[in-house]
Structure formats: C-alpha cells, structure tokens
Amino acid sequence: MSRDTLQTRPRLTARQQDVLLALLKLERQSGDGCLTATALADELGLARQNLREHLLNLSGHGYLNYHARPRQVALVSLTLKAREALGVSVGFPLLGEVAAGPPILADSGVQERVTRLEDILPMREGDFLLRVRGESMLGLGIFPGDVVALRPAETAQNGDVTLVLVPGDNTATLKRWQRRGHAVTLHSENPAFEPLKFNVTDVQVQGVLVGHIGLGGARRGAGT
Prior knowledge:
This protein is α+β, with helices and mostly antiparallel strands. It has two domains: 3-85, Winged helix-like DNA-binding domain superfamily/Winged helix DNA-binding domain (Arc Repressor Mutant, subunit A); 128-221, Ribbon (Umud Fragment, subunit A). The chain has helices at 14-30, 37-44, 48-60, 80-85, 216-221; strands at residues 35-36, 64-67, 75-78, 92-94, 112-114, 128-131, 147-152, 161-166, 171-180, 183-187, 196-199, 204-213. It starts with 13 loop residues before the first helix and ends with a helix. Mean pLDDT is 79; it is low at 1-10. It is an enzyme of class 3 (hydrolase). Its EC number is 3.4.21.88. GO terms for molecular function: serine-type endopeptidase activity.
C-alpha cells in the first residue's frame, strides 16, 4: 500500500499517512483490529507524545478510533473512513438466519452487507474492543480469544458486566459488578473462580459490556 492511495485526502500530512499505513500493517500482522498506541509508536519509531498529537488529529478527522484515558492503556483502530481511504475491502455478507433448533431451509440470498460492528452490535462512538484472556466468564459464553465490546464508563449498576481496574500493576479484569455500601464484589461466571472483594476506593470502573463476538476456535479448544 502506497501513500498515493491517500492523495485525495488533502488534510493528511505525509506523517499521518504513515501512521494509517503502519496501523494497517500491524493489524494484518497481529489479526487484531484494536492495537495499543505504544505498539504503533514502536513501529513508526516515534516518541509516544509525538504520536499522540497525530492520533488526536486523525481521530478528529474521523480516520481513527482513539481511546486515551488516565490509568488506561491507549487503544487505537482504523475507522471505516480510513479503510476506504486505504483501499481496504470492507464488509461481510449477512445471508439470513440459521436454526439452532429444528432444521430450517437456509437462505442463500445476501440480505445486506455488514461493514460496521454497529450493524450487529449496539455500539456507538467511543466504544472500544478488547480480546478476552482467561476463562472466568465462560458462563456467559465468553471464551478465551473472544472479543468483547465495551462502553467507557466510570460507574456501574449492580449486575453489569464491567471492565474494572483492580489493585496491582494496572490490572484490568472483566467481571460482574456488585456493590454494597463501600464494599465491591467482582463475580466471575465460572464456579472455578472465587469472587474478588475490594473497597470501592480501590477499584475503578473502565467500561460496561455492550456485546461480544464469539470465535469458534476458542470453543473447540475448550472442548465444547
């Protein structure tokens, strides 16, 4: 992919074009559509502070989803606008329905093309994705390697599945939130994992689950 693809986008500087192309390269290498700003800075050989200026500018023009919040890993991903500018094929066919119970006749006609996660998940601007590690949420059908969609939040309601920053080396975990007074209990959806209990001042809500994408390989590996 060359910069010539983006020459019709006069707002982009040569460095900004490099940023988009480098992000596309990393995405293809890792198979992950949401990468850290640190990995991107290393790929470009830029200081993170210098890269941040480019990311903010590109995000403002609609080319990137860029999530940078205090005490949180900065995540960055290409938008549909950026993919179109880069000439990347977008969209997957939604063919119809398939029975999970009694057999039905499969509909082979393409009903629509899914180009955005918003087409199938209740996502909105500012939401972000993370890949799941561990088996604590198996009871919800969330397996290791699955992708969860999260909405940034600083508070949660009892029963919400939340991304929570817990004491330790900037450790975040996906758990069901329960608060009683000043005590917070983070529940797994797997009986093999004990609940985690903290004082409310020791934890910080980072986001609330809005949906997830299950991957077949993870389920085969778990013997399901």
